[in-house]
Amino acid sequence: xxxxxxxxxxxxxxxxPIGSNAIDIAKEMSRHNRVLYVxxxxxxxxxxxxxxxxxxxxxxxxxxRKKEPVRQINENLWVLDFPFFIxxxxxIPDGVMFDAVNKRNNRKIFRYISRKSTExxxxxxxxxxxxxxxxSYFAKEMLGAALTVYYRxxxxxxxxxxxxxxxxxxxxxxxxxxxxxxxxxxxxxxxxQFNANSFDVxxxxxxxxxxxxxxxxxxxxxxxxxxxxxxxxxxxxxxxxDPDLIAAMAQSKPMxxxxxxxxxxxxxxxxxLHQLPNVYFTGSVAKNRVPAFMAALDVCxxxxxxxxxxxxxxxxxxxxxxxxxxxxxATRTGTMELFKDHVFLCNNATEYVQAIxxxxxxxxxxxxxxxxxxxRSHSWENNVxxxxxxxxxxxx
Length: 396
What we know:
CATH architecture of the largest domain: 3-Layer(aba) Sandwich
Structural class: alpha/beta
CATH class of the largest domain: Alpha Beta
Strand content: 15-25%
Number of strands: 14
Number of domains: 2
Low-confidence stretches: none
CATH topology of the largest domain: Rossmann fold
Helix content: 25-40%
Oligomer: single chain
């Protein structure tokens, strides 16, 4: 698909310091189309309750009229920030009052988007909504796009922040969208209950930094940790990961080092894992250092909880592990079945320990190459092409 104008609204700021599906999709789409990536406007609660962060700092500068609202990233890609704030809505009781305030926010947002996109010469745009259920809820009625595409990449309904309104709003947003694309079969299956034009398009991953042929210096934080190192890299969050499972593995294999790399939530910080002598927490590491940490591990883990959040969640980190040629041991979920020929899938601690032993024993150049080949098939080019195929069908 070429020569189209595409507007992307979503949950993640262009300036977010971690990986983002929407940003990667925007970059890929801008290779052959004009793309306006919209940073959601700040709400009053965010402005007054929180200190500036990397993902809000630029928006604050625009809000204070210190920076221009439109910045050009490349020849076909622009980022739009808002010189105004919107009302905080999540604390409003669900129903008529919420809808009224949210509609007022939407009207303010899409009037501004329409104006700025017209100034850029956008015409008859495709609107791509990245899981943005509140701020894009009335977009179909207000933006007048040629096509409204809802991208469901996460199940937000179980999260405490979203529970009050999303259960009612998301099915309606799915239903009135022209097309729904999802990054896992489970998320698509849910969407199909409300819109027959709902499809699994898989997941893309930027693996350019994950090349085992590169020479990675061993991070200083790991140099004192003995091999074999069995590790996890990412957000250490108890809503997604199972601390008791990790503890059971560590207690069963005291001669192995279990390395947890990333920031912890309160549950993990207070967990007995910190008292085990063969469990190591490094704290958060910068994104550009992640491949070096990964290269220093012998086996990579994805020890997930099995719940509403993880069942349909596509774990980008597994592709990153595999792209480095690493053996991977992970919890069996519906989405993880996509990896079953390249990853050891487990249901409990006993299976995890057995799989880790097998992963260490059977690791060889042949299986490493197969892992790398499989991971690299999940490119953003392939993923966005799958999205294009469905868009083109609808535009016909």
